[in-house]
Amino acid sequence: MATKVVMAQLSPTMEEGKLLEWKVAEGDRVEPSDLLAEIETDKANMDIEALGGGVVLKILVQAGETVPVGALIGIIGEEGEDVSALMAEAEVAAAGTPASAPAEEPPAQEVVVPPAPPGPPPEAEPAVPPAAPPASPLDASPAPTAPEPPAGAELPHSYVGESSVTGRVKASPVARRMADEAGLRVSDIPGSGPGGRVVKRDVEVAIALGVASPAAQPAPAAVPAPGIPSVAAGAPRLVDETLEPSQMRKAIARRLVTSIGPVPHFFLTTEIDMGRVLELRGAMNARLDSGKIGVNDVLVKVAAQALARHPEINASWQGDTIQRHGSVDVGIAVAIEDGLITPVLRSADRKGLLQISAEAAELVDRAREKRLLPEEYQGATFSVSNLGMFDIDEFTAIINPPEAAILAIGSTVEKPAVVDGEIQIRQRMRVTMSCDHRVIDGATGARFLQTFTAMLENPLELVL
Amino acid sequence: MAVITYREALNKALREEMLRDDRVFVMGEEVGEYDGAYKVTKGLLDEFGEMRVRDTPIAENGFAGLGVGAAMAGLRPVVEFMTWNFALLAYDAIVNSAAKIRHMSGGQFTVPIVFRGPGGSALQLAAQHSQSPDPWYANIPGLKVCAPATPADALGLLKTAIRDDDPVVFIEGELLYNVKGEVPEGEHLVPIGAADVKRTGPDVTIVTHSKMVHVAMQAAEKLAAEHEVEAEVVDLRSLRPLDLDTYVASVRKTNRAVVLEEGWPVAGIGAQVVDDIQREAFDDLDAPIARVSGLDVPMHYARALEKLIVPDADAVVNAVRHVCYLD
Amino acid sequence: MAKTEDDIMQANLQGIPRDRLLGMLRWMVLSRRFEEKTAEAYQMGKIGGFCHLYIGQEAVAVGAITALREDDYVFTAYRDHAQALVRGVSSEAVMAELYGRIDGASRGAGGSMHIFDRQSNFMGGHGIVGTHLPLAAGVGYAIKYRGGDQIVLCFFGDSVVNGGPFHEAFNMVAKWELPVVYVVENNSYGMGTDIDRVSAVDDLFMRACAYEGKKAEQVDGMDVLAVHDAVERAARRARETSRPTFIEARTYRYLGHSMSDPAHGTYRSREEVQAERENDPINSLVDRMEEAGLLTEEEYRAMDQKVIAEVERAAEAAEASPVPGRDELYAHVYSDEFRGGLDRRDAWR
User: Fold this and answer.
1) Is B102 on the interface with C (CB under 8 A)?
2) Stretch among A95-99, C201-205, C216-220, C245-249 having the lowest mean pLDDT
3) Which positions in chain B touch A193 (Cβ < 8 Å)?
4) Residue C64 sits at the chain B interface (C-beta within 8 Å)
5) In a 3-state reduction of DSSP, which class is residue C140?
6) Fewer CB atoms inside 10 A, N or C side of chain B?
7) What is the pLDDT at residue A245?
């Protein structure tokens, strides 16, 4: 009996996936757990493996195409088996699927362990089973989302997401109207209501943050501002262009707008003298042959230590309760091509600097290759974002819900500072913590920052 | 502004209108010598005499019908039911005569009568004496129906009802008689069919009437204090005609509605309000409209169960949080 | 042809002058011919709904209403065509009402059961058994309230005496001394049930004795003059002393309860109906007037022909009258503009 190969849901927020490369060709024989294909989700590149053995009878989606979660992408069965019925289903499904143009032939890539969907693949009805409901902006815990498509679930068409063929997005009437008036599509706005219903506050957030909608690309300003030459001599020539956001860019857009609107942010900034830490780091690195410790590793370590002393920061707003977390899991924002991802250093408060440094390096490397597993980038309790390497003095970061705070690190620069009544040139670093005011008050946040600062300025505490 | 009770406001309305128009007379069980079972008619017999303050036998269909006939002949009777529970015996007079005579006579006869008395539950009066008759009358074309929540509205609406040329069913709150409130000095009239926004707020509209207005106000204060939700409370005041323009406009602003009533849920006042909102403000809704009503059961005598049946502020808070996606 | 008072007395015409007798006769003939025309039109589908005919009972309405003053009030139940006519509502207005036309007494809103006429104080045409007895008491209350000397005449059927409104109204008019004359038209059958089968008391006037004992009486409802006499005395008493009276008029309806009911069958025999027809109120008065030399066969025939022509004209006028337009739909539900809008709640027609 033929089995279907479908676009698996590999992250809670994944709604569609791009087929990067087939690892098999039609006619190949495969065994269970053999690697079939590599796909790009909104967060990472992942593998799909065979559920059962057989011959690859059909490949229905070509490399470079993007299809919704649950879509049929291939068929495995016995040689000569009639798969016309399954094919027909797939055609119906494909009729409305907005597939992107195939990209150029991707180079062969190595294979990573696949979280393949268990159970029978979903029916490839015209409609695709819904992606798990988007997490509420007030509760972005991944718990309510299924890690795989609801296999075989038979759901009425009315429950199907808009990314599918006949689909509709659940949205309250006023949310639809407001989105219409703002030139937005409700399908571009993450819903925070029951079952992922897009409600008024979601649209307000989207409007406030200027969520771009393909339906409403603003026209380029026709009249340049007075006094500014329209084309600077020698400047690179700019062109109007419309870019299709990557899966990751879409996910970032969805996730972050669920933050700053519903989450009442406030910001605390302080300046820290880094002289002694840098000295200490230099001393340590001098003794290391490889795997040198970065400033960021120190910051993660110090933040984790401070969090352990301030459990009120290591917490989440849960709608009507506040969850304090039993472990300190620090997310490290990593800039990667076309986006960012936040690998998580688990129990960072209980790890030594060397271990943190090694783990962080490994995670960052794999993040840049888009090879993180979902559990490696989900569930942080606090995040650190460092733009110091870009010579940013200070900035504010947007909280990644349900975390209650994020620390934005600027560059460490030499500047005059008053030390013991004298002006000295010191290594100074400005940090800004964004706090969720539902969980953290000004004084609470400030006390945490005091601890953080004290630890950095007296790094021996780390040793003790 | 004088502060008087709801009971005093009704008495004041009766007295002022009896002084103003000698066609106005009151009748009902114990309205005269006894000064009224709830003392609403206190002092009127002494002032106006027996022909204008008539103690009746306990025969609701009889004296309600007599009132209808007197109204057909040009008087302006105010018929008191000791409570609306007893008016079920007069339902024929109210529905099949008072409400329809103008229509089925092709407009030749009008029936300017007021039927008034307390409705809703009181305290441990059990099933036959605790119910909200509101929808039974609001359903009837030909009637006008008022259900004021405050002394000022009780005063202004009763005066308007007495002056109205059509039959008015005037449902007072049995537990409101001692409620105090300011009433304007001088002539005070409240139009029939005009709702009143008792509290403004941008987040949710609570549509309600009579005793439940006070429950809604309590809930609104609680929502503001504990949940950062500012509710708008629309007091219907009249149940027929319903002032749909006011509550539809409010929901257009707030995008969310909770409809609260003391009576039973099925085919209740709230059912009509919900229909009006969904029809006229569908595109303004951010959530399905929630209803809070009395539970769908005859009233229990036992206090604990009675408290469960009548809506309270916590139920309203829960409903509001639900439509605001806060639960 | 001058006849003496004695002739009239001998013919049992109670000394009533000829012109008044002719008037009563004419009202009875009009009632009879009108109802016959109504039956015909109903069978042709020109009249719908419930339609209760009065044939056989004419003496009650005519004898009673002709004893009133113009400013008195009349209430009745749903068998109301004859009462309306005798009270002075035109044949055209009653027939147009039955046809459901705009020129009907109630502008086509009421139909057969709900004829109203403000001008003649004809207070309706009430469709629920017993419902109008308290209403009549209320008009009596209003008369007394204003210190007027009008009276209220209220007809109702025999079934009413077993229901609550009868007792509630009688108690109030007796206790408060209201000028109301109640006339029960006892035709022995409440729809298709012999009153004996459901009433604990056969002589219905006895029901009123608990309230106004001596002023309850029973009369021959097939004799227009007997009814007239009883109501005249009761009206005088009401006018002069503001006291109510209850009159039981024993009468008989020849047809079924309504147009959709049989004249005879399970509840009464054809023979019984035929026998009662021998006691016809119109023939009885005609015989007596002829005997007293107050009416000739030719005069009677000429009167009948004129009445038939009037009824035909009424039917033609009804036919020609416009059907009520949509503007009539809500026109008379309220005295002021209808707010709240039925139309807003149902815009699909």
Assistant:
1) yes
2) A95-99
3) 287, 325
4) no
5) helix
6) N
7) 62
Task: Check: CB of residue A187 under 8 Å from CB of residue A199.
Answer: no
Q: How far apart are CA B280 and CA B250, in angstroms?
A: 12
Integer Cα distance of A133 and A191 in angstroms = 8
| CA distance to A139, A145, A192, A463, B156, per residue, from A261 (Å) | 13, 22, 12, 40, 46
Q: Which residues of B touch C128 (CB under 8 A)?
A: 92, 96
Mean pLDDT of chain C: 93
Residues 6+ apart with CB under 8 A from B302: none
Q: Is residue C180 helix, strand or coil? A: strand
C168 and B70: CB-CB below 8 Å?
Answer: no
- Could you tell me how far CA A314 lies from the centroid of its own chain? 20
Q: Is the pTM of this model over 0.90?
A: no
Q: How many CB pairs under 8 A join B and C?
A: 167
Interface test with B, best of A174, A199, A320 (most B CBs within 10 A): A174
Give me the residue from C126, C135, C333 closest to B102, CB to CB: C333
Which of B54, B61, B101 lies at the smallest CB-CB distance from C134?
A: B61
- Decide if pLDDT at A230 tops 70: no
Alpha-carbon gap, residue B18 to A282, rounded angstroms: 99
Cβ-Cβ contacts under 8 Å, C127 against chain B: 96
Task: Report which residue type is found at A97.
Answer: T
Nearest-Cα residue of chain A relative to residue B252: A174
| B244 vs C contacts (CB less than 8 Å) | 340-341, 344
- Residue in the structure block whose two tokens are 């009401």: C238
Q: Does pLDDT of B314 surpass 50?
A: yes
Please state, in angstroms and as integers, the Cα–Cα distance from residue B268 to each residue in A416, B250, B264, following that order.
75, 21, 6
Cβ neighbours of C338 in B, within 8 Å: 241
Interchain CB distance below 8 Å, B255 and A177: no
The contact set of A with B (CB < 8 A) is 172-177, 192-194, 199-201, 319-320
Q: Which pair of structure tokens corresponds to residue A285?
A: 């690195």
Beta strand residue intervals within chain C, DSSP E: 73-76, 122-125, 152-157, 180-186, 189-190, 193-194, 216-220, 245-250
Strands A16-22, A66-68: pairing kind? antiparallel
Phi, psi of A366 (to 5 degrees): -70, -30
- In this prediction, residues A123-144 reach a mean pLDDT of 38
Chain A / chain B CB contacts < 8 angstroms: 31
Residue C345: the pLDDT is 84
The catalytic residues of A are: 437
Mean pLDDT of C100-113: 97
- Chain B partners within 8 Å of C332 (Cβ): 102-103, 105-107
User: ipTM for the complex?
Assistant: 0.95
pLDDT band at residue A277, thresholds of 50, 70 and 90?
confident
Chains near A with 3+ CB pairs less than 8 A apart are: B
Note the pLDDT of residue A350: 87
Min Cα distance B142 → chain C (Å) is: 5
B251: closest chain A residue by CA: A174
Task: For residue range A412-421, list pLDDT tens digits in order.
Answer: 999 888 888 8
* Number of helices and strands in chain B (H, E): 12, 14
**Average confidence (pLDDT) over A340-354:** 88
CA atoms within 13 A on the CB side of A99: 21
CA B222 remoteness from chain centre: 25
Mean pLDDT of chain B: 97
pLDDT in tens, A34-92: 788 888 877 677 777 776 778 888 888 888 888 888 788 888 888 877 777 777 766 66
Q: Which of A417, A379, A443 is nearest to A274 (CA)?
A: A417
